[in-house]
Amino acid sequence: MHPTARLFRFIPLALALALAGGCAIGQLIGGMAASAEREGSHKVAAKYTGLRNRTFAVFIAADRTLQSEFPQVVPAFTREITRRLSENAGAAGVLPADEVLQFQFRRPGWTAMSQEDIAKELEVDRLVFIELNDFTLNDPGNRYEWRGVASGTIRVIENNESRFKLAFNEPVRVAYPDSEGQSIDTIAAQTVLSELSRRFCERSAWASYDHEEANILKY
Question: What are the start-end ranges of the H helices in the chain?
């Protein structure tokens, strides 16, 4: 066979191998991009920016049943959300969390006060009022499998020269663990409590400042 003929016989095969290699490379690049998308993060703008250059206080409300079962939740949430907002929201000042907790302790009748009156009493420009509606680690009647849920409503009351208005109102809900079937034998109770609390505080605070979120956020 003439050498030129042999060359033309092998051109289609070489081309096919090149194309196959290109597809493999494309699949590899696509897989890497998908992995980066799963593991990466993106910027998310604040939903409410009214804390900037203003004074604020964080006030957590929960019913007695919840507080009786989890007495540490209200103080811990008050301190942690106050910390996150004071560090990130660009506020002019903050009423320390312990002063808010002392106010609640000294004034047991605060539950009958309106949120506007609480803001006035605390003498802040913005009251971040979080009503904690649910905080549970298990489904009712099943103490052996974790199904943690924390939910509530975030409201921000603005005090502008003694004129009060509801400026922000949004529900927040988080859960942990991320998969079903996690029992008391596989995850410690303190781990569930801590992670559920962290997620709720983070979600609650994120509403008021720009932040980074994972591209695939499990909560």
Answer: 3-39, 64-69, 73-88, 97-106, 115-122, 189-206
Query: What is the per-residue pLDDT across 41-84, written as a single tens digit (0 to 9) for each?
Result: 999 999 999 999 999 999 999 999 999 999 999 999 999 999 99
Instruction: Find, among 155, 174, 148, the residue nearest to 70 by Cα.
Output: 148
The backbone torsions φ and ψ at residue 88, rounded to the nearest 5 degrees and listed phi first, read -125, -20
12 confidence band (pLDDT: 50, 70, 90) = low
Task: Report the SS3 class of residue 164.
Answer: strand
Within this chain, do residues 102 and 152 fall inside the same structural domain, yes or no?
yes
Which residues face 61 on adjacent strands?
A: 131
My answer on whether 141 and 73 are in the same domain is: yes
Task: Looking at the structure, tell me whether residues 114 and 193 fall in a common domain.
Answer: yes
Instruction: Enumerate the β-bridge partners of residue 213.
Output: 42
**Number of C-beta neighbours around residue 148 at 10 A:** 22
Q: Strands 126-138 and 211-214: what pairing?
A: unpaired
Where in the sequence is the domain holding 31, given as residue range(s)?
3-35
**Whether residues 168 and 109 fall in one domain:** yes
* 12 lies in the same domain as 92: no
